[in-house]
Fold each of these.
Amino acid sequence: MTINATDKIQEALKERAHDESRPFCYSDYITVTPNEDGQAFCPKCGSDDLMREVEGVGVEYGYEWVMEHIVKEDGERVDIEDMHRDLLDEIYPAVKFGELEYSASHVLETIDPTAFNMGANEYADSMVEEGQLIELNGDYYRLDGITE
Ligand SMILES: [Zn+2]
C-alpha cells in the first residue's frame, strides 16, 4: 500500500473511491450500472470481474488507484518542513546575540539539517498516526472531510 493513513481514513477513502468510480467491463469496454442490490454484472458478458472507471481519468482494477487519485486531486499538500518550523518556533524561544535574533527553527535547520529533517519526518508521521495527515508516496496531504 502506497497510501499511509489510519484504518479509519483508509476506510473513508475507499468509500469515497467507491462513490466516485463506476464498475467497468474491460472485455466489452463498457461502464456497468449496478443493480438494486448494488451488485454489478456486465450486461453483455455477465462477468462480475470488473474494473473501476473514473470518467476522464482511467480504468483499472481495484480501489487503490482511485484513492490515490482522490488524495492528489482533492487533497491539500502539506509542506512538512514549514509545519515543523512553525512547531519549533512555537516551542522554543528565539536565540539572541545582543541585537541579533535567530528563530529556533532557523538555528536548528542551519546547524543540523539532518536533525531538522528527521524531526520534520517524525512530526509528520505522528500526524499520520493521529489521522491528521495522509501520506502518499512520501508526500503529505490534508483532505477535507477525511483527515481530522
Ligand atoms: Zn463484459
Note: The chain has five helices and ten strands.
Amino acid sequence: MHVSRDLAHYQQDMAETTGQEGAKGGPHYTKERLKYSPEEEARLERKHFWRIIDAFRYYRIHVQEQVKRAERQFQSLPQHHQDLLPDVLSNLARIGQCADHNQEVLQAIVHNSLHMFENMEYGEREDPRKIRPSSTFDMDKLKSTIKQFVRDWSESGQAERDSCYKPIIQEIQRLFPSDQYDVSKVSVLVPGAGLGRLAWEIARLGYMCQGNEWSFFMLFSSNFVLNRCEKVNALTLYPWIHQFSNNKRSSDQTRPIRFPDVNPQSLSLNADFSMVAGDFVEVYNEPESWDCVATCFFIDTAHNVLEYVETIWKILKPGGVWINLGPLLYHFENMANELSVELSYEDIRTAMVRFGFHIEVEKESMQTTYTENDRSMLRYVYDCVYFVVRKPAELQYFNGQNEDHLQNSPPAAKSPRREGPDSPT
Ligand SMILES: C[S@@+](CC[C@H](N)C(=O)[O-])C[C@H]1O[C@@H](n2cnc3c(N)ncnc32)[C@H](O)[C@@H]1O
C-alpha cells in the first residue's frame, strides 16, 4: 500500500476536472509518508487501479459463490424440511439473476473508467478477459458502493438525503443567499464526495462546487453516473441481495432500485461543477482559496482528524465557513498498521476552537441513516453532530495561541444557535 502523488485528472463531460488520485494506505505511524521513486509510484498506482477494476469484474463470481453455499446449506437439510419450503431454491436462483444484472452495470462502469483520467493512463491488462479473484475487503467495498447508489441517486434515497444533505444545503443558502451574493463566485468544496450528489445539488443551485474523492470505487461509479446516465430511472440495481439476514420477506432481498432519479446532465450550461480525484490533505494545500467547505460523513475517514481540521482551516478564506454533519465512526480504528486517533467530538471541538474557528451553529443530535435498507429488521441510526464554524475574517486566534479566549468562553456561549437534542433540525 502506498501514497501516490501522481496527478490523475478525471475529465467530466459537463465541466473540466482536474485532480489527483492517491492509492492511500500503508504504514502510517509517522507524519512523513513513505516516498517512492516516480517509477515506483506509477507502478503502485497502476497496480491499485487494476486491483479495483478486478474487483468490479469479480463481483458476480463472488455473489454466485455465496448463493451456491446457501443452496448447499438448504439442500443439506432433511428432505421433509426442504419440502416445507418449495420456494427457497427459486428465491436463491433469483438472487443469482440479480447478481448477473448488477454485474452488467458494473461492467458498464468499468468500461467507462479505463480512460477516465485525462492525464493518466493505466496501460492494458496482459489478459483482459481473465477474471482475477478479489479480497473480501474489496468485495465489501464494492457492495457498499452499490448501496451508495441508493443514497445518492435513487428515489428511495430521498429521505436519507433530506436528513443528511438538506441541512448542509440550506445552511449554504442561508450563509450565501442569492439575493446578496453572486453565487457563481461562491466556492464550495465537498471533500469525500462519494457518488457526488451533495456536490451536484450545490452546483445545481448555482454555486461553484467541487467534489473531492479518493476511492477508485467511488470515482469510477460517480464518473459513470454523472457522465453516462442521462435517462431518468433507466438503470436498475439490486443493492440488497448481499444481505441474507434480517429479511422479513424473501422478495425484500431482491427488490430493485432505479437510478438516476434525476438527470445528472441537467445542470445549466454555466454551472461550475467538478470532481477532483485524490487524498483531500494532499490535493488541497492552496491557502485561503475556498468560501465554504462542506463535509458529510467524512471527518471520521481521517487517520488523524486534526489533519483535516488543519487543512480546512488553511484552505478557507478569512471569513469562510466549514459545515459538517456526520458521526465519528473512525474508519481506521482497529486496522493493523494504520495510524488511527479516535478523538471524541468534545476533543475535536476544543481543537477547532484552538485553531481559531468560531462556532456559529452546533447541534449535537441530528439523527440520520447511511445507505439504509429500510425494510431490514436491523437498522442503524447515527446520532450525528452538526456544526457550522467560521474562520474569522480578521484572524486573532491561531493554533491555540490565544488560550484566554478559549478559557474565558464556555462552549455554549460561543454557540449562538446551539440547540439541544429535542430541537427540530
Ligand atoms: C462515509 S463516505 C461519505 C460519502 C458522502 N460524503 C456521503 O455522505 O454519502 C466517506 C467518503 O470519503 C472518502 N474519503 C476517505 N478518505 C478520503 C481522503 N483522504 N480524501 C478524499 N476522500 C476520502 C471515501 O472514499 C468515501 O467515499
Note: The two ends are 41 Å apart (CA to CA).
Amino acid sequence: MSKRLYELGEDLRLGEVPEQMYASVIRPERYGRPADAFRTEVVDMPPVGRGQVVVRMMAAGVNYNNVWAALGEPVDVIAARRHAGDTEDFHIGGSEGSGVVWAVGEGVRQVRAGDHVVLSGCRWDESAPDIRAGADPMTSSTQRVWGYEESWGAFAQFAVVDEYQCHPKPERLTWEEAACYLLAGATAYRQLLGWQPHVVKPGDPVLIWGGAGGLGTMAIQIVKAYGGVPVAVVSSPERADYCMRLGAKGVINRREFSHWGRLPDIGDTAATAAWLKEVRRFGKKIWEILGEKRAPKIVLEHSGQDTIPTSMYLCDTAGMVVICGGTTGFHADVDLRYLWMRQKRLQGSHFANFAQCRAITELVSAGLVEPCLSWTGNFDDLGKAHQMMYDNTHAMGSMAVLVNAPRPNMTSIDVA
Ligand SMILES: NC(=O)c1ccc[n+]([C@@H]2O[C@H](COP(=O)([O-])OP(=O)(O)OC[C@H]3O[C@@H](n4cnc5c(N)ncnc54)[C@H](OP(=O)(O)O)[C@@H]3O)[C@@H](O)[C@H]2O)c1
C-alpha cells in the first residue's frame, strides 16, 4: 500500500513517488558551524518538470561548496534565491550522488526508470540563446550549481534533476564510491584537459595543491593517466604517503615553508627578498623531485589567496595556472610582471560540461581513476562531515554519506 512518507532505505515500488521525503536541511537561523547547520527534516516532494527525472538517492558525496552554504558566506544562498524570486526559506544541498532513476517526467528520452546513475552538479537551460549559439553550457548565463546555487540537491531521499545530469554508474563501484568522484573528478578533468592548448601532455610536470584532497586525488590520477608528471603539495607525512601511492612523482610538505599569503608591498625590499628566498626554496623542491630544472607547465589551483603568488611565480613560461576555488581567501595577489613577461595564463575554471563528466566517468569505469572514498557516514552525519572538511581534519580523498543504500561497515567520526 502506498504511503505518504517512507523511511530511508524502506522498500517501495519502482515508479512510486511519495508526497514527502527526508532531507538534510540548512536554514538561515542555523547558519554558522557546519556541524550545527544541517538537520534532517521531512519536506514535501518538489514538482517534476519537463525533461526531469526523479532519482531515489542511494548515496551522496560531500563537497566544500556546502561548507560555504552552511556558513552562509561568502554568499547567503537562501537569500540570493529569494531575491531571485524563489519562495523557499531553506536549502537542501548536495551536488553529486548516486541512485536509481525512479520516475521520469514528460519529454525524457535518454534515461529510464530503473537505470543506475551518478548525478552531475550543474544545471543550465538547454534552450538558452547562448547555448543554442554554441556556447559551452558551463559558460551559459543560465548555468547554476545544483545543490549550492540551487536547492533540492543530493542530500535528500529523492532528487529531481534534469535528464542530462544523469550519467551511467560505473558498475564496479559501490553506491557510496559512485557518489563521490564526479564533482571533484570532472572539475579536475576540465582544469587539466579543458583549456587548449594548455592540456596535460606526456612528460609535462603538473603542480597540484592539496594532493590528498578531493580535487587533488583526482588530479594526480588524471595527470598520470595522460602521461604527465604529478607533483603534489600536502600538509603532513601521511598525506604525502597517500599521494605517492596514488602515483605522484613526489610530494612537498607546505608546512616546511613560511611565505604563504599575500605578497609583500613592492617597496618593501627586505620582505620581498625574504619572500623570494622562500619561494625559490620551494621551487628547488620541484626540481629535486623531477631530477631536472623544469617548471610546472600547469598548476592546479583551488587554495587561492595563500598560494596564488607561489603558483604564478613557479609556473613555467607560457604555462597556465588554472583555478577553481579560493579555500584560503579570495584576494589573491598577482605580480603582473611575471604574468606578462613570461606570458603565463591565469585561467578560471568551474565544474564541467556534459562531455567532461562522461570522460571522467569512462576513466573511472575503466579503473584508470579510483574514487578515493575514505570515509562513509550516515545520512545524519552530514553536519559532521562538512565540519571536518571546514576544519581540514577530514580523511584523505573523498567522503560520502549513505541515503537509501544499505549500511555496511560504517566509520563515523565524532566532531566536538
Ligand atoms: N568551482 C568548482 O567547480 C569546484 C569544484 C570542486 C571544488 N572546488 C573548490 O576547491 C576547493 C577544494 O575542494 P576539495 O574538494 O579538493 O576540498 P578538500 O578535499 O578539503 O581539499 C582541499 C585541500 O586544500 C589543502 N589546503 C588547505 N589549506 C591550505 C592552504 N592554506 N594552503 C594550501 N593548501 C591548503 C588541504 O590539503 P593540505 O592541508 O594537505 O595541504 C586540503 O586537502 C574548495 O574551495 C572547493 O569549494 C570548486
Note: Residues 324 and 350 are 6 Å apart (CA to CA).
